Amino acid sequence: MFNKTAIRESKGDRLFMFLIYLFLSLVLIAVAVPLIYIVSSSFSSPQAVVTGKVWLFPVDFTLDGYKAVFNNPQIGVGYLNSLFYTVVGTTINVILTIMLAYPLAKKTLYGRNFFMVLLVITMMFEGGLIPYYLVVKNLHLLDTRWAMILPGALGVFQVIVARTFFQTTIPDELAEAAELDGCSDIRFIFSIVLPLSKPIIAVMTLMYAVGHWNAYFDALIFLRKPDLFPLQIILRNILILNTVDASMMADVSQMQAQQGLKDLLKYSLIVVASVPVLIIYPFVQKHFVKGVMIGSLKG
Amino acid sequence: MPRLNSRLQTEPSLDQKHPLQLKALPEGGRGRSRRKQIMRHWQLYLVLLLPVLYLIIFKYVPMAGIVIAFKNYNVIKGIWGSDWVGLKYFHQFFDSPNFWLYIKNTLGISFYGLIVGFPAPILLALALNEIRNGLFKKTVQMVSYAPYFISTVIMVSIIVVNLTPNVGMISKFFEMLGMSNTNFMGIPGLFKSIYVWSDVWQFTGYGAIIYIAALSGVNPELYESAKVDGASRIQKILNIDIPSLIPVSVILLILNLGNIMKLGFEKIYLMQNPLNLSTSEVISTYVYKVGLLGSSFSFSTAIGLFNSVINLILLVSVNYIARKLSNSSLW
Q: Are residues B75 and B136 in the same domain?
C-alpha cells in the first residue's frame, strides 16, 4: 500500500487514478442499482411498477406486496421449513466437519494420508445424479426431512479449510504437552481445540447456513410433499414458473391490474426471502473474508 | 484446495521424531510400533468413524452405483441383479441427434463464462488495490460481495424481473435505446450472454477477495524501489502487481478448466423456458430430465459418467501443462 502515500503524482498517474475511481464507481452503481430497484419496487404501487415509473425510489408508497406475501400460507410453511433445515443441517455440518478435519490435521495419526486421499478423491470424481438419487432412495429418505440434511452432511471443501486452520493455529507442542500430562484426544478437542477455533467455526457456520438457506436442488429431486418444501422451492414456483405466463399475458389489458399485483408480490417476496441472509451478512463480513483467505491462499 | 493437501502429504512425517515413538521403536518390530501408533490415537479413529461413514455412504456408494451405466437398470432386479448391456447407452448418447448440440451448448457457456468471468475479479482487485483504505473502498467491497449471498432462485428471479418487457429495469433501458418490447429470456441467441454476465454481476466481488489478499502480501519494498526508480502507477501494476498474482491465478484457472464440463445445473435449469431450449439445454440439465423426469436411469448415468470422465481428463491434463509451463500446479 506504499504507493498510495506518494506526495507528488505525475499527470499520467492522476489521470490513471481518475479512471480507477470512475471504474470503481461504475462497478458500485452496476451492483447496487438493480438491488435498490427491487427494494423500491416492492414498496411501490402495482400501477407505478407496471407502467415503468419506478427507478430508484418508491412511487406511490404501499405495503400491498408485503401483505400479499404474508397472507400466503405456502410462504410461511416454506420459511419455517427452511429455518429448520438451516439450523439442524448447519449444526450437523459443523460437528461432522470438525470430527473429520481435526484428526486429519494431526501429524502423528497413523493412516492420515489414507483418509486424506479418501477425501480428495471425492473432490475429483463423483457418482453423478442418478446413483446419488438411488442411494437416498434405498435408504428410504425420499420425502423425509432427513433428505434435506443427511446427503449434504459434510462439505469436502470446508473440511480442507478447517484442517488448514487447525494445522496453522494449534501447535503440535501443545498437543504433545497435553498428551504427556495424560489428556486424552477427545478431551483435548473439547477443552483446547474448540475454544481456539472460534473464528473458523464462525466462518463454517456462515458458509453452511447460507448454503442451506439458498439450497433448492436437493429439495427438487428428493421432496414431493408440499408441506416439506423449503422456501426456495416455493419461491421457484411463485417467481419463476409463473414467468412465462406473465409475459404471455402482458398485452391483455384486462389482466393488467391483477398482473400488477402479481409482479409486486414478486418484488416483495425477493426482499422477504433475502432478509435473513442480509441480516447476518454485516456481522460476519470480517470473518467471512478471513475464511475465504484461509481456504484459498493457504490451501 | 487440493494443492495444499498434496504438499502436506509429501512433507516428512513427524512420527519418527516424536519422543514417545523413539521409545517404542527399539523394543518391538515394525508391526508392534504400528499397533502402538494406532492405539495412541484410538479416540481419534472413533471420532473419524462418523464422517468416514458419511463419505462411504454418500460419496463412494454412488461411485459404485455407476455400474448401472453399463446395465439395463431395473427397479425390481436392483443395481446388481440387472442385466449387463455393455456400452449400449453410451452409443445411444453419442448417436442421438442432439449430442453435439448439448456438447456445444455446455462448452460454449463454459468458455464464454471463463473468458469473461476469469479476468473480472482480477481487474476489480487491481483497481481496489490502487485506492486508499477509506469509506469508498469499504463501500465498494461490501456492496460487491453482497450478491454472492443471493440464492440461485432469487438471482434468476432478479434476472427475469429485470428483463420483463415494459416493466424490468434493464428492458426499460434497452427500450430507451429503441428496442421495444423484447422478451429477452425467449431469444436463444441471448441466453449465453444473460447467463454469463449475471454471473459476473453476482460473483466478481467475491472472486476478488482472493486476489486482494494476494496483493496485500506483496513486499512493500518493491513499491518503494519502483517509486525511487520513477515508475508510474501503470508500470507498477504491470511489473509488480500482475506478476504477484500469477501463482494464484494459475491455480484458479486450472480449477476452472477442470470444471468446464461440470456446468452448474441449478441456474441454467431455472433460466430455461421452451423458447430458449435450443441454446440452454446442457449436459447436466439433460441428465436430470432424462434420468429423474424420464426415469431412464441407466442412460442418464451413462451421460453423467461420460461427463465426469471428460472432466477428470481435463483436470489432469491442464494440471500437467501448468506444471510444465510454470511452477504452480495443484499437485
A: no
| Distance in Å, alpha carbon of A293 to nearest chain B alpha carbon | 6
Rg of chain A, C-alpha, whole Å: 25
CA distance B267 to B152: 6
Measured CA to CA, the distance from residue A281 to residue A210 in angstroms comes to 10
pTM of the model: 0.85
Q: Which residues of A touch B236 (CB under 8 A)?
A: 3
CB atoms within 10 A of CB A140: 10
Consecutive 10-residue averages of pLDDT for chain B (331 residues): 40 43 46 80 92 96 92 84 89 91 92 94 94 89 89 91 78 76 84 94 91 87 88 89 89 81 85 90 91 90 91 86 76 67
Domains and CATH numbers, chain A: 68-299 (1.10.3720.10)
- Name the residue range of residue B37's domain: 21-85
- Residue A150 to residue B158, Cβ atoms within 8 A: no
Answer yes or no: do A6 and B227 touch at CB < 8 A. yes
Cα A161 from Cα A164, distance rounded (Å): 5
Give the count of beta carbons closer than 10 Å to the beta carbon of residue B172.
Answer: 17
Paired with B71 in beta bridges are: B84
